[in-house]
Design brief:
single chain; 65 residues; mainly alpha; 74% helix; elongated; transmembrane helix; DUF1427; membrane; XapX_domain
Length: 65
């Protein structure tokens, strides 16, 4: 839990610095960008759930046979 709070704190500090320096925000400006990042993470986790992707390929092939 500590790492999540530190991550949030450091992100907040960077956001404040960017705002004070009037720089563009270094993050997706819309919800669609955030959802895209979450999708990338979930896709990565999906591969690890299916034993490095081998089981995932067999599972997908099962849908078409």
């Amino acid at each position: 839990m500590k790492i999540y709070l530190l991550s949030l704190l450091s992100g907040g500090i960077v956001g404040v610095l960017f705002a004070l320096l009037r720089l563009p925000i270094p993050a997706p400006p819309a919800l669609s960008g955030v959802l895209g990042i979450i999708g990338i993470y979930l896709g990565y986790q999906l591969i690890s759930w299916f034993e490095g992707g081998k089981g995932l390929i067999q599972w997908i092939q099962g849908w078409f046979t």
